[in-house]
Amino acid sequence: MGVVTSTAAARAAAAKAPKQDRSRATRQRLLEAAVACLAERGWAGSTVSVVAERAGVSRGAAQHHFPTREDLFTAAVEYVAEERSQALRALPVQSRAAVVAALVDLYTGPLFRAALHLWVAASNEEQLRPRVTELEARVGRETHRIAVELLGADESRPGVRETVQGLLDMARGLGLANLLTDDRTRRDRVVAQWAALLDESLG
Known about the structure:
This protein starts with a helix and ends with a helix. It contains 9 helices and no strands. It has helices at 2-41, 48-55, 59-65, 69-89, 96-106, 110-124, 129-151, 160-178, 184-202. It is mostly helical.
């Protein structure tokens, strides 16, 4: 009897696993589609229906994973932010110029464009604002922590924390400029200058 029960349980688990895999895959497609739509269409043009169609799933399936539009888009930006953070954590120890360039890339890709649309929407949407504010604070803290590690910065020294934060603020500014014009040559010069300044100030 115990063997039969055990076998039945194993079969049930085997049947359940593919369903869970499909559910995870559907969720990931929705998150990636939401970020792409937000980056390309902005908040006004990014409805749940549009995202579901892009992801190749029904609107009902989308709402099963994310009951509200706000759930979907905050989760999407958080998902890709975590993916980018993992990529930064995986960087080998390099020159500070390479680290600065990697951090700037974080703010000049589709994630930043999507996040920016979400921030603008949150400034006008009372329901969305606290969620985006909390998300931005969390992502900001994590990015700062990773930057400190990659740069080998000693924040116990006066001014070092502000220097690292200044780097991230500069990178965000370059990301904003990149929305209109992709001036990579100018950006590369700014990155090189910031790396030199960091070498001088961080030691």
